[in-house]
Design goal:
Blueprint: E1 13-17, H1 22-33, E2 37-42, H2 54-63, E3 67-72, H3 78-92, E4 97-100, H4 115-142, E5 146-151, H5 165-183, E6 189-195, H6 203-208, H7 223-233, E7 243-246, H8 247-250
Parallel strand pairs: 1-2, 1-4, 2-3, 4-5, 5-6, 6-7
Bound molecules: NADP nicotinamide-adenine-dinucleotide phosphate (NAP).
């Protein structure tokens, strides 16, 4: 942010799904630093095997002078998503921005993919995006415009590298968002996909990255996604919409 410049997201409300750790937590912090009130949404209310809870991320933001609300949310549950969106609107008065970031990773080859892993990827990475998006649309429309962002992956385009449940679920989410951009243009809502340009070594990646060794030049700092999400969050349908963006290309 330029010193002295007004906060670009001042007065806006952002709902970040999957914000208890990793990229979502970083994005939530960046949106708050840009002036947005942020709903920190995920399942972890108490500390589990992985670090980070919705309460700890929201507390960090509030301690830094921002505004954040922890909201329990399982993106695979219609009622849980609705309750989380309702709690956000009750606290902050509306929603202008969605970052549909909640995701699970499964990179195993199709032949050795258990059905439950396939279904989990589709449930979280596709149905989860559908449920949170469907729940926030009426609120964003009521504000006269806003910005929806789905977090996807460069793996969608890697058709020379095989297939896995993760890439397939993210490809479907991209199709959902590209079409939705056209549907919501008349409502002044920007709809875009955003992915890291390279690998972000988050807790989720370390746990589910199939033991892959990532060379240092392929590693991206989480802040790149934070900056890119802020830029996309400031859009409406008169700006960037209907696109798939990469963090380091969008905000070099
Ligand atoms: P992460 O560290 O595993 O964090 C995943 C987040 O999603 C957590 O906050 C987790 O919270 C939440 N989540 C998982 N299942 C959920 C559910 N059913 N309901 C609500 N929240 C749920 O992963 P990450 O690496 O930060 O990835 C974040 C996003 O970026 C994902 O969509 C991922 O596919 C995408 N991405 C990451 C990379 C990378 O290099 N890391 C590259 C491309 C794309 P709870 O467990 O508390 O629910």
């Amino acid at each position: 942010m330029t010193p002295g410049a007004p906060d670009p997201l001042s007065g806006r409300v952002a709902f970040v799904a999957g914000a208890s750790r990793g990229i979502g937590a970083t994005v939530a912090r960046h949106l708050a630093a840009a002036g947005a009130s942020v709903a920190v949404a995920a399942r972890s209310e108490v500390l589990g095997k992985l670090p980070g809870t919705i309460g700890s991320v929201a507390a960090q933001i509030n301690d830094a002078g921002g505004q954040a609300l922890p909201v329990a949310c399982d993106v695979t549950s219609e009622s849980s998503v609705q309750n989380a969106v309702d709690a956000t609107v009750a606290e902050f008065g509306g929603i202008d921005i969605l970052v549909a970031n909640a995701g699970v990773l499964w990179l195993g080859p199709i032949e050795t993919t258990p059905l439950k892993r396939w279904q989990l990827c589709l449930d979280v990475n596709l149905t989860g995006v559908f449920l949170v998006t469907r729940a926030v649309i009426p609120h964003v429309r009521a504000r006269g415009g806003g910005s929806l962002i789905a977090v996807t992956t460069t793996g969608v385009g890697m058709t020379d590298s095989g297939a896995n449940a993760y890439w397939v679920s993210k490809a479907a989410a991209e199709r959902l968002y590209l079409g939705l951009a056209a549907d919501l243009r008349g409502d002044n809502v920007a709809v875009n996909c955003l992915s890291p340009s390279r690998v972000v070594l988050t807790e989720g990646w370390q746990a589910g990255g199939a033991g892959m060794q990532i060379p240092p030049e392929m590693v991206e700092p989480p802040e790149a996604m934070g900056r890119a999400a802020v830029l996309l969050a400031t859009q409406d349908a008169s700006g960037i919409t209907g696109t798939v963006q990469r963090s380091e290309e969008l905000t070099p």
